[in-house]
Design goal:
Number of domains of chain A: 2
Helix content of chain A: 40-55%
Oligomer: homodimer
CATH topology of the largest domain in chain A: Jelly Rolls
CATH superfamily of the largest domain in chain A: Jelly Rolls
Number of helices of chain A: 6
Largest interface: A-B, 42 and 42 residues
Number of strands of chain A: 11
Radius of gyration of chain A: 18 Å
Order of helices and strands of chain A: EEEEEEEEHHHEHHEEH
CATH class of the largest domain in chain A: Mainly Beta
Distance between the termini of chain A: 45 Å
Chain lengths: 205, 205
DNA sequence: CGTCTAGTTGAATTCCGTCAAAGCGGGTGG
DNA sequence: CCACCCGCTTTGACGGAATTCAACTAGACG
């Protein structure tokens, strides 16, 4: 099946898998780890336009250049396919294509939802929305089912800022304020404990 | 073919085709006119997350609720399909599915590019980027080929603001300033004449 | 000519970004 | 084990870009 034309590969945290503007060489399926998709401007401003979790796809099937770079945020493992081989395989396997189409439609919905956040929400609303979404998406991988109140983010402050279209200072201040207000606890740099989910949801707008 | 299960329908400017959160009843192919996809918050803030031009698709195949409402910005004409019938038809026509997949991937790229604009660009950069993109997308429909310097927007100031994540006042001020600086001419409310494309591209960042 | 909507302009405010400095924590080497 | 260093984060002071609130103007249409 599909497995035959793919090969497993590990990649270290911080390593760049694809560069913005390159002819996309591969398509991949993430098995473990977290990656980011980044669009950057000439002057260095960056916006993270997608966070890739295990079971998500990366790459751009059907012969376009990649419009963003992909970087591993943690050590990651993935199943990589040569793009041409993948395209051919997909063309002859409608079921795979349908699956891909569904995923892509879901991604598009998520991206559009995120546009609302970027364009219209305030800093505190952004942070609150972000934490709630992360608690959901990170719960999938954890042991117990259900949404968890405590989790470890795979990113630092700067990266949170790049996801939300804020500066690192604003991000830090908002988190500190939420801790002061008793909504959160921040036991270590990357750990988040949600202490008042209701209030957080209210804040998220 | 596909035409058999669809029916043509006209819709007036301002009319809402789908409501955010509804079970999407239809899928449609736009033949003429321009529509907007809008996500709105409880307090009335709105963000336009997509502008739909002729030949674009709207709706959400494969049984999810629509995550945004769709409204006609001009009188429009489209070919509407019952969603269930469309889903079935698509499932048995891989070529249609592939076409749909390509379109959706393109839309996703466009959305992600737009996220950079919303999250990281300044007001003037947003306006400049917007005008350039519109001059491109509206050129497709016009008579002559190539990108045109003069075109008529299908939206008012408030809608431009909702696309860019700005207020109507900021939008107006930026346009006025660009006219004063000789980058544009604004012969009437909805007409734009680009007088210095280079400068505009520089501004867009 | 009056009314109505859409757009423009002005002044005051505020939220967020910028610049700068200090704090923390984790790793390394003495 | 402690001292030191480095990167990341926090905190503070300040400034500026964009929003807010409000008044005014320009067209469109009866």
């Amino acid at each position: 099946m599909l497995g035959k034309i793919g090969r497993r590969q590990k990649i270290k945290a911080g390593h760049v898998l694809m560069w913005e503007g390159d002819e996309a060489p591969v398509v991949a399926n993430v098995l473990d780890g977290v990656l980011k998709m980044v669009v950057s401007a000439a002057d260095g401003r960056e916006q993270i336009v997608g966070v890739v979790f295990p079971s998500d796809f990366i790459g751009r099937p059907f012969g376009k250049e990649t419009p963003y770079s992909v970087t591993a945020m943690t050590d990651a493992e993935m199943c990589i396919f040569n793009r041409k081989a993948f395209d051919e395989f997909a063309s002859s396997h409608p079921d795979l294509q349908q699956k891909l189409l569904r995923r892509t439609l879901d991604e598009l919905d998520r991206a559009r939802h995120w546009m609302m956040l970027l364009g219209r929400k305030t800093a505190s609303e952004k942070i609150a929305s972000f934490l709630l979404e992360m608690s959901e998406r990170l719960s999938g991988q954890g042991c117990e089912a259900g949404v968890r109140a405590s989790f470890e983010l795979p990113f630092g402050r700067q990266q949170i800022a790049d996801i939300l279209g804020l500066t690192i200072e604003t991000t830090s201040r908002q988190l500190t304020k939420m801790r002061a207000d008793g909504l959160l606890d921040l036991p270590s740099r990357r750990e988040i404990v949600i202490q008042d989910r209701n209030a957080l949801e209210l804040l998220a707008g």
